[in-house]
Design a protein that fits this description.
Layout: H1 3-13, E1 20-24, H2 32-39, E2 44-49, H3 52-65, E3 70-74, H4 82-91, E4 98-104, H5 113-122, E5 124-135, H6 146-155, H7 166-171, E6 173-180, E7 185-191, H8 195-204
This protein binds S-adenosylmethionine.
């Protein structure tokens, strides 16, 4: 059900070989195989999650696959100062600022997702690519499935009305839009503007 969004999100993100990609709310690392295919052994995957249990499973996944280019960080992405996270990444051999980032089915779990988004952008270099994959009510013929979709989301702790891909729409350039599963899965990817323009946009929107 949810793999489709993952595949479309990473396709839209299009990370290049050798790049460092940040996977925000990485969970058990289900995105890692698709990211590794793109970035290769010279790239780096940085997984951030607040759950030690999820990260343990992600660590096992990386070990089993033999990926030694994966950095896993336990942190609350809304609460942790981005400078602290950048310092941890550097202390583990990565770059403080990443080339790309994605958040799949993660921001809708974070009540303060706008704050998390602002933190995320501070961990990215100018003109980095960023992708958000998340859920909304199904549309068209599939509207009948709305109660099912809502129940599944609330069971997992997600707010189906959050629509966090708005941040990509509001902040980025060169936006790619996609959807799957009768509109239930929404995919947005874009390019962050240079930091100065990004900060000006944030100030203008009062965030
Ligand atoms: C539904 S899972 C999605 C995991 C993964 N992105 C995927 O596509 O399979 C959401 C993840 O976000 C993490 N999470 C929720 N709030 C967080 C926060 N404030 N900071 C960091 N991680 C968070 C959870 O621990 C969980 O692993």
């Amino acid at each position: 059900m949810y793999r489709a969004g993952r595949v479309l999100g990473i396709t839209a993100l299009a990370p290049a070989p050798g790049q460092q990609v940040l996977d925000l709310g990485c969970g058990t690392g289900l995105n890692f195989p698709l990211l590794q295919q793109r970035t290769g052994p010279s790239g780096t995957i940085v997984g951030i999650d607040r759950s030690a249990r999820m990260l343990d499973l992600a660590r096992r996944r990386a070990a089993k696959a033999g990926w030694d280019n994966t950095i896993l960080i336990q942190a609350d992405a809304a609460e942790t100062d981005p400078a602290t996270i950048a310092a941890i990444i550097e202390s583990q051999g990565g770059k403080g600022l990443s080339d790309a980032a994605l958040a799949t089915y993660a921001l809708s779990l974070m009540p303060e997702w706008r704050k998390t988004w602002a933190h995320l952008t501070e961990l990215l270099r100018d003109e980095a690519r960023v992708a958000v994959v998340d859920m909304q009510d199904p549309v068209g013929w599939a509207r009948v499935l709305t109660p099912l979709a809502r129940a599944a989301c609330s069971l997992g702790g997600a707010d189906i009305t959050a629509h966090p891909w708005q941040a990509v729409e509001q902040t980025c350039n060169s936006i790619v839009r996609d959807s799957a599963r009768a509109g239930h899965l929404q995919i947005r990817a874009g390019t962050l503007p240079q930091a100065g323009r990004r900060n000006a946009g944030r100030a203008a929107s009062g965030k």
